[in-house]
Amino acid sequence: MNDSRQDEHMNEEALMRRAICLAQRGIGAVNPNPLVGAVIARNGVIIGEGWHERYGGLHAERNALAHCTEDPAGADMFVTLEPCCHQGKQPPCTDAVIAAGIARIFVGSDDPNPLVAGKGLSRLEAAGITVVRGFLKEECDRLNPVFFHYITHKTPYVIQKIAMTADGKTATRTGQSRWITGEAARRHTHETRKRCAAIMVGIGTVLADDPALTCHLPEPRDPVRIVCDSRLRIPLDCQLVETAAEIPTYVAACRMEETKAAQLREKGVHILPMPEAEGHVDLRALMRKLGEMGLDSVLLEGGAALHEAALRAGIVQHLQIYIAPKIFGGDAARPAVGGLGVAEVAQAYRLTDLACSRIGEDILLEYEVEV
Ligand code: AOF
Ligand code: ZN
After folding, report:
1. Rounded to whole angstroms, how far apart are CA atoms 318 and 145?
2. Ligand nearest to the CA of 57
3. Residue 122, C-beta contacts closer than 8 angstroms, at least 6 positions apart
4. Do residue 253 and residue 140 come from a single domain?
5. Is the domain of 200 the same as that of 280?
6. The whole model's pTM is what?
């Protein structure tokens, strides 16, 4: 706990915002579980705080109770997510909150996990605790779009990332694509890589750019790498294959030559045999498979063909479009989204919930994809 805060009187919103900040410390370490933070306070003074630090570890509520500097009986708890009431990898948090004698609990998000879903709050109320639900709900909900999607659909939350010029190109007519956006925007992408369980590209991108798809941050966390490669064309000497022994690498393929598959396996690549849809990997089937593997989030980094197929298959939830202040022009220059495209304006993929920010000299547009 931060000592400088010990005697500071904070209002209820500030205490919940502190819990939100703590929750963010779990980024990249808790998937497929939620980011959760908890603060315990008496008369607005923090006496304990905690967060969900890593997958399978203590939940935020129990961490906060364990770090109390005094007996929490009669104190308030601020927790970003409804406390669980089931036995999972950890025992129910409701039991710990009740046993500690917490008097009031302020809860941000509801937990859509069918094992919890309202039952956690009922149990606390039945024990005589005053429950304030939906407290700063929107801010708390923003912590966990991935968890909310994964726990209800059992498929990963898919973020489609595009870095393009102001005229919508992702490479020049000669195929050059390094770099379109500036350094700050590229660093931002590495932050997104860090929070995703997996990163996915199409075989076209591997053949054109030979990417490593690793996270280049001071404290990196490399997501699992997935290549959609229906005909198993991936070169044995590309960076992804060369590093497959260190970073889990999966190739989703529909038709394959057994010798090639054996050579790839030899190098540590996992092959995921997938059904075909319209001549390519069936992306819906692949998402179900990745969900079964416990992967809660996928960052889709292109290329143009995969971006179009993903939108068409309806597997994308969130879009991140970086726009660089450059124009390439050229009919032969690669567009951000390829394929055939829609024929009519009315068939456009619709985007909602725009969030717009400036990163260095680039613009970042974020949207949800309308279902
Ligand atoms: C977490 N961390 O701080 C809270 C969670 O298998 P378990 O026991 O870790 O339970 C995971 C479920 O517990 C999770 O899906 C969510 O519904 C609930 N709350 N989970 O990992 C936490 N508060
Ligand atoms: Zn719990």
Report:
1. 10
2. 1
3. none
4. no
5. yes
6. 0.91
Same domain, 104 and 216: no
Asked if the model's pLDDT at residue 359 lies above 80, the reply is: yes
Instruction: At 152, list the tokens.
Output: 């209800």
Structure tokens at 253: 């393929």
Cβ-based neighbours of 117, under 8 Å, separated by 6 or more:
110, 111
Among 99-103, 255-259, 282-286, the minimum mean pLDDT is found in 255-259
Q: How confident is the model at residue 221 (pLDDT cuts 50, 70, 90)?
A: confident
* 166 and 199 assigned to the same domain: yes
CB neighbour class for 2 (10 Å; exposed up to 12, middle 13-18, buried from 19): exposed
| Cβ atoms 153, 291 nearer than 8 A | yes
- Given a contact cutoff of 8 angstroms between Cβ atoms, the answer to whether 357 and 363 are in contact is yes
**C-beta of 153 in contact with ligand 1 (< 6 A):** no
Domain that holds residue 77: 3-147
73 and 38 housed in the same domain: yes
Protein residue with least CA distance to atom 14, ligand 1: 33
Catalytic one among 61, 82, 301, 308? 61
Q: Is 12 a catalytic residue?
A: no
Residues 141 and 164 in one domain: no
Q: Are residues 204 and 238 in the same domain?
A: yes
Residues 269 and 242 in one domain: yes
